[in-house]
Amino acid sequence: FKTQEELINEVVNIYSEKMVQRTHDISRKKASVQDLLKAHLDGIDEFEEFYIKLVSEAKILPKDSRNAFVLIQSAVCNHLSEALQSEIENGKIKDLPINFIFNTWIGILNYYLENKDLFAPDGSVIKRYGDKLIEYFMQLISK
User: Fold this and answer.
1) Tens of pLDDT, residues 59-82
2) Among 51, 10, 50, 38, which Cα is nearest to 134's?
3) How far apart are CA 40 and CA 130, in angstroms?
4) Half-sphere exposure of 5 (CA within 13 A, CB side)
5) How many C-beta atoms surround the C-beta of residue 2 within 10 A?
Protein backbone atom coordinates (compact mmCIF):
# COMPACT_ATOMS: atom_id res chain seq x y z
CA PHE A 1 0.00 0.00 0.00
CA LYS A 2 1.29 3.41 -0.91
CA THR A 3 -0.31 5.16 2.06
CA GLN A 4 -1.65 4.35 5.48
CA GLU A 5 -5.05 5.53 4.30
CA GLU A 6 -5.07 2.89 1.53
CA LEU A 7 -4.26 0.18 4.06
CA ILE A 8 -7.00 1.34 6.46
CA ASN A 9 -9.53 1.51 3.62
CA GLU A 10 -8.67 -2.02 2.47
CA VAL A 11 -8.97 -3.52 5.96
CA VAL A 12 -12.26 -1.74 6.64
CA ASN A 13 -13.62 -2.78 3.23
CA ILE A 14 -12.77 -6.44 3.82
CA TYR A 15 -14.48 -6.35 7.21
CA SER A 16 -17.44 -4.46 5.78
CA GLU A 17 -17.94 -7.02 3.02
CA LYS A 18 -17.94 -9.86 5.56
CA MET A 19 -20.48 -8.13 7.79
CA VAL A 20 -22.76 -7.15 4.92
CA GLN A 21 -22.62 -10.67 3.47
CA ARG A 22 -23.49 -12.20 6.84
CA THR A 23 -26.52 -9.92 7.11
CA HIS A 24 -27.61 -10.71 3.54
CA ASP A 25 -27.27 -14.46 4.17
CA ILE A 26 -29.42 -14.48 7.29
CA SER A 27 -32.06 -12.19 5.75
CA ARG A 28 -32.54 -14.56 2.79
CA LYS A 29 -33.92 -17.08 5.27
CA LYS A 30 -36.77 -14.71 6.20
CA ALA A 31 -35.21 -14.39 9.63
CA SER A 32 -36.95 -12.93 12.64
CA VAL A 33 -35.84 -9.70 14.27
CA GLN A 34 -34.19 -11.74 16.99
CA ASP A 35 -32.32 -13.88 14.41
CA LEU A 36 -31.03 -10.76 12.65
CA LEU A 37 -29.86 -9.22 15.92
CA LYS A 38 -28.04 -12.47 16.72
CA ALA A 39 -26.40 -12.51 13.27
CA HIS A 40 -25.35 -8.89 13.78
CA LEU A 41 -23.72 -9.76 17.10
CA ASP A 42 -22.08 -12.87 15.64
CA GLY A 43 -20.49 -10.74 12.94
CA ILE A 44 -19.21 -8.25 15.49
CA ASP A 45 -18.02 -11.01 17.81
CA GLU A 46 -15.70 -12.39 15.16
CA PHE A 47 -13.78 -9.09 15.10
CA GLU A 48 -14.99 -7.34 18.24
CA GLU A 49 -11.87 -5.29 18.98
CA PHE A 50 -11.75 -4.07 15.39
CA TYR A 51 -15.43 -3.14 15.42
CA ILE A 52 -14.96 -1.21 18.66
CA LYS A 53 -12.18 0.76 16.95
CA LEU A 54 -14.48 1.48 14.01
CA VAL A 55 -17.22 2.75 16.31
CA SER A 56 -14.94 4.86 18.48
CA GLU A 57 -12.85 6.28 15.62
CA ALA A 58 -15.49 6.57 12.90
CA LYS A 59 -15.27 10.36 12.78
CA ILE A 60 -11.53 10.35 12.10
CA LEU A 61 -11.41 7.49 9.58
CA PRO A 62 -10.62 8.23 5.95
CA LYS A 63 -13.74 9.02 3.92
CA ASP A 64 -13.81 5.66 2.12
CA SER A 65 -13.52 3.81 5.43
CA ARG A 66 -16.32 5.87 6.96
CA ASN A 67 -18.45 5.03 3.93
CA ALA A 68 -17.71 1.32 4.37
CA PHE A 69 -18.69 1.55 8.03
CA VAL A 70 -21.93 3.29 7.07
CA LEU A 71 -22.53 0.51 4.54
CA ILE A 72 -22.42 -2.04 7.37
CA GLN A 73 -24.96 -0.06 9.36
CA SER A 74 -27.13 0.42 6.28
CA ALA A 75 -27.16 -3.28 5.45
CA VAL A 76 -28.09 -4.23 9.00
CA CYS A 77 -30.75 -1.51 9.08
CA ASN A 78 -32.20 -2.54 5.72
CA HIS A 79 -32.60 -6.20 6.61
CA LEU A 80 -33.69 -5.48 10.15
CA SER A 81 -36.29 -3.06 8.77
CA GLU A 82 -37.81 -5.81 6.64
CA ALA A 83 -38.10 -8.15 9.63
CA LEU A 84 -39.39 -5.36 11.88
CA GLN A 85 -42.06 -4.33 9.38
CA SER A 86 -43.26 -7.91 9.12
CA GLU A 87 -43.37 -8.38 12.89
CA ILE A 88 -45.06 -5.00 13.41
CA GLU A 89 -47.75 -6.01 10.91
CA ASN A 90 -48.16 -9.36 12.71
CA GLY A 91 -48.59 -7.57 16.05
CA LYS A 92 -45.40 -8.95 17.60
CA ILE A 93 -43.46 -5.67 17.72
CA LYS A 94 -44.66 -2.26 18.88
CA ASP A 95 -45.58 0.09 16.07
CA LEU A 96 -42.66 2.46 16.53
CA PRO A 97 -40.70 4.20 13.78
CA ILE A 98 -38.25 1.65 12.42
CA ASN A 99 -35.39 4.15 12.43
CA PHE A 100 -36.02 4.72 16.15
CA ILE A 101 -35.92 0.97 16.84
CA PHE A 102 -32.71 0.54 14.82
CA ASN A 103 -30.98 3.55 16.36
CA THR A 104 -31.94 2.36 19.84
CA TRP A 105 -30.38 -1.05 19.10
CA ILE A 106 -27.18 0.52 17.74
CA GLY A 107 -27.03 2.98 20.63
CA ILE A 108 -27.31 0.28 23.29
CA LEU A 109 -24.88 -2.02 21.49
CA ASN A 110 -22.27 0.65 20.86
CA TYR A 111 -22.55 1.91 24.44
CA TYR A 112 -21.62 -1.52 25.75
CA LEU A 113 -18.84 -1.97 23.21
CA GLU A 114 -17.31 1.47 23.73
CA ASN A 115 -17.34 0.87 27.48
CA LYS A 116 -15.81 -2.60 27.25
CA ASP A 117 -13.42 -1.69 30.05
CA LEU A 118 -16.43 -1.44 32.40
CA PHE A 119 -18.52 -4.35 31.11
CA ALA A 120 -15.98 -6.98 30.04
CA PRO A 121 -12.45 -5.75 30.79
CA ASP A 122 -10.85 -9.15 30.31
CA GLY A 123 -13.07 -10.61 27.62
CA SER A 124 -15.70 -10.13 25.00
CA VAL A 125 -18.69 -7.87 25.50
CA ILE A 126 -20.62 -9.89 22.91
CA LYS A 127 -19.88 -13.23 24.56
CA ARG A 128 -20.67 -11.86 28.02
CA TYR A 129 -23.74 -9.74 27.26
CA GLY A 130 -24.87 -10.53 23.70
CA ASP A 131 -27.76 -12.82 24.58
CA LYS A 132 -28.94 -10.49 27.34
CA LEU A 133 -28.73 -7.45 25.07
CA ILE A 134 -30.96 -9.20 22.55
CA GLU A 135 -33.34 -10.46 25.24
CA TYR A 136 -33.75 -7.06 26.90
CA PHE A 137 -33.99 -5.22 23.59
CA MET A 138 -36.71 -7.59 22.43
CA GLN A 139 -38.57 -6.91 25.68
CA LEU A 140 -38.39 -3.18 24.93
CA ILE A 141 -39.85 -3.46 21.45
CA SER A 142 -42.21 -6.44 21.78
CA LYS A 143 -45.94 -6.09 22.42
Assistant:
1) 999 999 999 889 889 988 998 999
2) 38
3) 10
4) 6
5) 6
Strand partners of residue 93: 142
Q: Which residues contact 125 (CB under 8 A, 6 or more apart)?
A: 48, 112, 113, 116, 119
Tell me which DSSP letter residue 93 carries.
B
* Tally: H helices and E strands in the chain: 7, 0
Amino acid symbol at 123: G
Q: What is the pLDDT of residues 1-58, one digit of tens each?
A: 899 899 998 998 888 888 888 877 877 777 899 999 998 998 899 889 999 999 999 8
**CB atoms closer than 10 angstroms to residue 91:** 9
- Residue count of the chain, please give it: 143
